[in-house]
Task: structure prediction
Amino acid sequence: MGNILTALSRPFKDLLNIRKKDIDSGLQAVAKSTRSRSANYLSVQTLDPVRLGNAFSVADNGDIADQATLFELVEEHDPHIFSELSKRRRAVTGLGWQLRAPRDASQSELDRTAELQDMLADIPGIEDALYDVTDTIGKGFCALEIDWGKGDVWLPRRLIFVPQHDFRVDIRNGDFLYLNNGIPEPLKPAVWCIHQHKAKSGYIEQAALFRVLAWTYAYKAYNVMDMQRFLETYGMPLRLGKYPDGITEKQRNELLRAVRNIGYDGAGIISTQMSIDFIEAKNTGRVDDFLSAVEYWERKQSLAILGGTLTSQADGRTSTNALGLVHDKVRREIMLHDARQIEPSITRELLAKIVAVNGMFPMDRMPVFRFDTAEPVDQEKAVKILTDGVRLGMEIDIEYAHELLQIPRAGKDAKLLTASQIGMASDTASLSRAALSVTQTDHSVDAMADKLANEATVHEQAIIQQIYACIAESGDYDEAIAKIEQLNIDLSAFATLIGQGMAAADLAGRVKVEDKV
Result:
């Protein structure tokens, strides 16, 4: 058995020994923890850099609760950060996924891989759980607790997201500890899925993307607050009340109250002996100066999250097609970076537990989780390349051809599409044109025979692959022969080619006769 490590830095074989006890003991956290701390939502309107530095310093010693809380509040308070992070997260969750068996997998392993993929897809809320996993892109790690369903097949009933501020890091070994009413306790390996995601190098408490974004938020928050104060001060004219000498203090208070409220109420009454003047402020600065400062920090945030600003701040002047292609390349590189970090965690932290609990695979033969990150291909060009390669005598693997064309292999009992089903008339016409071409350039029978041989190569390779699969799955010569004899090989494609060849030969002969006449 392989020595696969969990997020707790322990060999995976330890999980096999303790899984029954851990699963039977139930959840370590709760679905919606009532023990979680309540956040002070007003505390980050102006985030003091000193407070931010103190939170980071404490986190470096393993106490990540304050840092994680700040990350949550910054994400809620800043729509720009939320929007850009959502784009990056959806770039991953929008991908398809599949389980990939080992390259030398037997038919039995392929069948069990398909069964395991169906089991994974049937987990309630699996797509929501994958989105929760991408929360690590900004915050460095995430924790999902498995609520196991027991029966003939043990499968998660729920994957419950637990906030990052409910954990701390053991700085001695890097393990995560769950804060149970503030008391750290080790995680139960069989009921937790932990994914760590590094935006930059360093220990996990230092590697989060929000360690960079929090500073930009702090500086931008000061600009936003100054702009609000500016608008409150200069957004409406100064209201100056005037009163004559000799009035009572009560009358002065009434005038002051009227001056203060007239900006909001838009109406008021005062004595005819009093007056209210509106004085327009001059040379007070412009709100554009504050907006420019805010836009500066938002550009820095976009650069940190997406590697560019084109998707959020296109201005019509610098948004050229060439620049768009560069940004798209950067976007894809970031998406691949995120996907490649998440894939092994899903394999190790979720798939491996399902496999171990149900005894489906040895650890060194289990399938792996993969996102579908292949870019769309021009299938017409790809078919031409493959066809030309076969005609040149190149040995092209059938599996490679399927992957290149992005056409999945047929299932075990699937009904296969053959050349004869595509249309006899169109194929005959195509081969007739080929025969005419041969007649115009080379009147030999050998040239036409070579063309027919090339057309038949694809069908020959398909049969050879079936025979090869029988041999690979057999233990001895007799078993291989028996399996080959049981193959249901469709020869209709060859019959079609022979018929087309005869038709082409007839047409070529007629062309020869017409040339002589």
Observations:
- The longest helix spans residues 321-358.
- Residues 230 and 460 are 80 Å apart (CA to CA).
- Residues 238-279 form one domain.
